[in-house]
TrEMBL record:
Pfam families: GatC. The gene is gatC. Heterotrimer of A, B and C subunits. Keywords: ATP-binding, Ligase, Nucleotide-binding, Protein biosynthesis, Transferase. It is an enzyme of class 6 (ligase). This is Aspartyl/glutamyl-tRNA(Asn/Gln) amidotransferase subunit C. One of its GO terms (molecular function) is transferase activity. GO terms for biological process: glutaminyl-tRNAGln biosynthesis via transamidation; regulation of translational fidelity; translation. It catalyses: L-glutamyl-tRNA(Gln) + L-glutamine + ATP + H2O = L-glutaminyl-tRNA(Gln) + L-glutamate + ADP + phosphate + H(+); L-aspartyl-tRNA(Asn) + L-glutamine + ATP + H2O = L-asparaginyl-tRNA(Asn) + L-glutamate + ADP + phosphate + 2 H(+). NCBIfam families: gatC. Transmembrane segments: none annotated. The lineage of its organism: Bacteria, Pseudomonadati, Pseudomonadota, Alphaproteobacteria, Rhodobacterales. Belongs to the GatC family.
Length: 95
């Protein structure tokens, strides 16, 4: 697939990027380079290759999935303009 200047203009418009007419050939060339690189990547055989999180093999850090209160109630309520009995106090809205 090849990108011409008209397609580059349309892509710029869809991306809401202001591109001068003089810069459209450069943009088209850069988009063609990106597409060529993507075609090269599609040629790579990845059959049997497991997905990785990094180029160096490592195990993700995990913690036990336990529900807690966060032990920060006092710190959170310290910033509240009005707090009562461990909760935010707000004005009554519905009567």
């Amino acid at each position: 697939m090849s990108i011409d200047t008209e397609t580059a203009r349309r892509v710029a418009k869809l991306a809401r990027i202001a591109v001068d007419d003089a810069d459209l050939p450069v943009l088209a060339s850069e988009l063609n380079g990106i597409l060529n690189f993507m075609e090269q990547l599609n040629e790579v055989d990845v059959e049997g290759v497991e997905p990785m999180t990094s180029v160096t093999p490592m195990r993700l850090k995990r913690r036990e999935d336990v529900v807690t209160d966060g032990s920060q109630q006092e710190a959170v309520l310290a910033n509240a303009p009005d707090a009562r009995e461990g909760f935010f106090a707000v004005p009554k809205v519905v009567e």
